[in-house]
Automatic annotation (TrEMBL):
<dbReference type="InterPro" id="IPR002146">
    <property type="entry name" value="ATP_synth_b/b'su_bac/chlpt"/>
</dbReference>
<dbReference type="Pfam" id="PF00430">
    <property type="entry name" value="ATP-synt_B"/>
</dbReference>
<comment type="subunit">
    <text>F-type ATPases have 2 components, F(1) - the catalytic core - and F(0) - the membrane proton channel. F(1) has five subunits: alpha(3), beta(3), gamma(1), delta(1), epsilon(1). F(0) has three main subunits: a(1), b(2) and c(10-14). The alpha and beta chains form an alternating ring which encloses part of the gamma chain. F(1) is attached to F(0) by a central stalk formed by the gamma and epsilon chains, while a peripheral stalk is formed by the delta and b chains.</text>
</comment>
<comment type="function">
    <text>Component of the F(0) channel, it forms part of the peripheral stalk, linking F(1) to F(0).</text>
</comment>
<keyword id="KW-1003">Cell membrane</keyword>
<keyword id="KW-0813">Transport</keyword>
<keyword id="KW-0375">Hydrogen ion transport</keyword>
<keyword id="KW-0406">Ion transport</keyword>
<keyword id="KW-0175">Coiled coil</keyword>
<keyword id="KW-1133">Transmembrane helix</keyword>
<keyword id="KW-0472">Membrane</keyword>
<dbReference type="InterPro" id="IPR050059">
    <property type="entry name" value="ATP_synthase_B_chain"/>
</dbReference>
<protein>
    <recommendedName>
        <fullName>ATP synthase subunit b</fullName>
    </recommendedName>
</protein>
<keyword id="KW-0066">ATP synthesis</keyword>
<comment type="similarity">
    <text>Belongs to the ATPase B chain family.</text>
</comment>
<dbReference type="InterPro" id="IPR028987">
    <property type="entry name" value="ATP_synth_B-like_membr_sf"/>
</dbReference>
<comment type="function">
    <text>F(1)F(0) ATP synthase produces ATP from ADP in the presence of a proton or sodium gradient. F-type ATPases consist of two structural domains, F(1) containing the extramembraneous catalytic core and F(0) containing the membrane proton channel, linked together by a central stalk and a peripheral stalk. During catalysis, ATP synthesis in the catalytic domain of F(1) is coupled via a rotary mechanism of the central stalk subunits to proton translocation.</text>
</comment>
């Protein structure tokens, strides 16, 4: 032994070479047995994660499209409800106008019937007045003929007929 910590003699170099050869064989064996399956597992895992991310993106896109569709539907629902309200108001206004027109026609009909009834009553009253006048004239003529009339007698007859009639007022 020479005085160094590490001496590069033949035995040391042979042991070192063997150790390097064992390490390479161990590395190749482990690579074949462990690294390759672990790498494949990691690649499969990476592919699975990539597919899940793509699926998540497509789901997110689908959800966004559905959100837009629902927002459009909500917008259309508001428009539809406004249209329905406009139609209801229009129909209510038309119904109100119909009711008012019917009431106006009925009022005109009632007014016309009342005017007709008034005219009939006027004619009836005129006829009654004519009959009374004829009766009065007949009574006066009868009394006039029955007595010899002088002026004073004539005035008395008229006063008598008027008192028999009572308070009769003549209206046209």
């Amino acid at each position: 032994m020479d005085g160094g910590i590490i001496s590069f003699d033949q035995q040391f170099l042979f042991g070192l070479g063997l150790q390097l050869l064992n390490t390479l064989i161990l590395f190749a064996g482990l690579s074949f047995l462990l690294f390759k399956p672990v790498r494949e597992f990691m690649e499969k895992r990476s592919e699975k994660i990539r597919l899940q991310l793509e699926q998540a993106k497509s789901e997110e896109q689908r959800v966004l499209e559905m959100k837009k569709e629902y927002e459009n539907k909500l917008g259309h629902i508001k428009e539809e409800s406004d249209e329905i309200l406009r139609e209801a108001r229009k129909k209510a206004q038309e119904k109100e106008n119909e009711i008012i027109e019917e009431a106006r026609k009925e009022a005109d009909s009632i007014k016309n019937r009342a005017l007709t009834d008034i005219e009939r009553e006027k004619v009836k009253i005129k006829d009654e007045m004519k009959k009374e006048m004829v009766e009065i004239a007949s009574m006066m003529a009868g009394k006039l003929i029955a007595s010899s009339i002088d002026e004073q007698k004539h005035s008395e007859l008229i006063d008598e007929v008027i008192s028999q009639m009572g308070d009769v007022s003549w209206h046209n």
